[in-house]
Design a protein that fits this description.
The complex is a heterodimer of chains A (59) and B (421). Chain A is mainly alpha-helical and 59 residues long. Chain A is built from 2 helices and no strands. Chain B is mainly alpha-helical and 421 residues long. Chain B has 15 helices and 2 strands. Classes of the chains: A mainly alpha (59), B mainly alpha (421).
């Protein structure tokens, strides 16, 4: 789950880069950037969850 | 946009250098806050760690960091994609060779040198009471030799983010969020302190040992931030030196309104204002306002501070209660959360039409690239040599275990905190 989360974070960033490099300024570019941030939010959630489980086991 | 130092008038450059000299005060302030929020048996270790962090940061930044960071107008590597050049890393020479240290042209590197230490001291708060001194130094070397200069180049050194119009005058992203995300990685890698959570997962309070140190740290941080924001705005946002008056007003208003916001919220929720949270609120206000200190009006600075204060109260609670993050110094909330808010606010509340899309791209880069990078580097380091202190060291206290003497030898020691066996 942790690895998937980090891959989603990186994937989101790559979508951002692709959007600003390849798309013209305008609604489509903004939509892609917002979508990419959504992907990153999902990745961050997974990484937090992945760290929650081992820390509970350690207690 | 970052300016070429050669284009600065002599008086502006001299003023800028004086502001840079105030930055160590912010570092000292954060060191005192981290020491005060930790336990008494780790106090000397916390302060020595801060000193070691600054030492390692200075040496590593001198060796490689300054070369990676570069500055506007200096040589850099660029990728040519979709008909555009994407400047991604500085191509300067190691050991600061090629920098004219007898003129003003090295000012961005000097500011970078001071800022690297400030960024590297942030994770000390989250790893307090359980992080080995050797591991702290190694982690600092990774942060100041690679992670910090890379993002500093992108935002401050004329890199691709600066080309997009990303604004971060005082380093809310470059210093604070980079340090705060490293702090988050460290809490994940080290795990919580023993005795912090019960077997049912309920956190217990392990209060800091010295509120006076924490609050004194806030005063020092304020002074340091005044210098940092002013110098950063002149060098990296290209504002005239006369704008320092607005910057000083905004910096103070941001900190003050955030502290008041925390005091009001904690008073309303718990019946009394919480001193350590108010101190964290003060710093969160400084952090949040740094990004847009030179381009927002004072009323906007108040709003940035008020929201930053509210954010950290709930963020500290949420991270501890729901996400199992044990962050004794509140570094993740104060530096990462408030810093991210500050970056967005700079785009939304700027006097001139803000490039909020560039700010959004900056935030996405910090979360999507810097967090995996800093986590990966520290994870590798932990695989090579565990970063967490041995169980015996945590029980005995880092002062005795790693340094052989406590910070307060004349104090009568007692079992000041709950210890689960």
């Amino acid at each position: 789950m942790k690895l998937t989360g980090f891959l989603l974070l990186l994937g989101g960033w790559i979508i951002v880069l692709a959007a600003i490099a390849l798309l013209p300024s305008g609604p489509s570019q903004i939509s892609f950037v917002l979508l990419a941030i959504g992907v990153e939010a999902l990745g961050l959630t997974l990484v937090f969850r992945a760290h929650l489980i081992p820390s509970r086991e350690r207690r | 946009m970052p300016v070429r130092v050669a284009a600065l008038p002599e008086t502006s450059a001299a003023l800028c250098f004086l502001f840079v000299l105030l930055i160590p005060s912010a570092t000292a302030g954060l060191a005192l806050i981290n020491a005060g929020l930790g336990r008494f048996r780790n106090a000397a270790h916390a302060m020595l760690s801060a000193l070691c962090v600054i030492a390692v940061a200075a040496v590593v930044y001198f060796v490689a960091g300054a070369a990676w960071q570069g500055s506007a107008g200096q040589p850099a590597f660029a990728l040519h994609v979709a008909g555009q050049d994407w400047n991604w890393i500085g191509a300067g020479r190691f050991f600061m060779r090629g920098l004219d240290l007898e003129g003003w042209s090295a000012l961005p590197a000097v500011l970078g040198l001071m800022s690297a230490g400030l960024a590297a001291i942030i994770p000390l708060g989250s790893g307090a009471d359980r992080w080995r001194l050797g591991a702290i130094c190694a982690s600092t070397a990774l942060l100041t030799g690679w992670t910090f200069p890379l993002f500093a180049h992108w935002a401050w050194g004329g890199g691709w983010l600066a080309q997009l119009g990303f604004v971060d005058s005082g380093g809310a992203g470059v210093i604070q969020v980079v340090g705060g995300l490293t702090a988050l990685s460290i809490t994940w890698i080290l795990g919580p302190r023993r005795g912090k959570f019960s077997s049912e997962g309920v956190p217990s309070a392990l209060p800091g040992h010295n509120a006076v140190l924490v609050l004194l740290g806030c005063f020092l941080a304020w002074l340091g931030w005044l210098g940092l924001n002013a110098a950063g705005a002149i060098l990296f946002t290209g504002v005239p030196a006369s704008r320092v008056v607005l910057i000083a007003v905004n910096t103070t208003l941001g900190a003050g309104s955030a502290a008041l916001s925390v005091a009001a919220i904690t008073r309303a929720r718990f019946g009394k204002a919480d001193a350590s949270l108010c101190a964290n609120g003060w710093v969160a206000g400084l952090v949040a306002v740094s990004a847009g200190c030179a381009i927002v009006r004072p009323a906007a600075a108040v709003m940035i501070g008020l929201i930053a204060g509210a954010l950290i109260v709930y963020s500290v609670e949420w991270l501890e209660l729901h996400l199992g993050v044990d962050d004794p110094g509140g570094s993740v909330s104060v530096h990462a959360v408030a810093g991210l808010w500050g970056l967005l606010a700079a785009g939304l509340l700027a006097v001139t039409a803000g490039s909020w899309l560039a700010q959004l791209v900056g935030v996405a880069t910090l979360l999507g690239f810097i967090l995996p990078l800093t986590y990966g580097l520290n994870w590798l380091l932990n695989r090579l040599s565990p970063q967490r202190i041995a169980v015996e060291g945590e029980r005995q206290g880092l002062d005795l275990y790693e340094l052989g003497a406590g910070a307060y030898p004349d104090f009568q020691t007692h079992n000041e905190d709950f210890w689960q066996r």
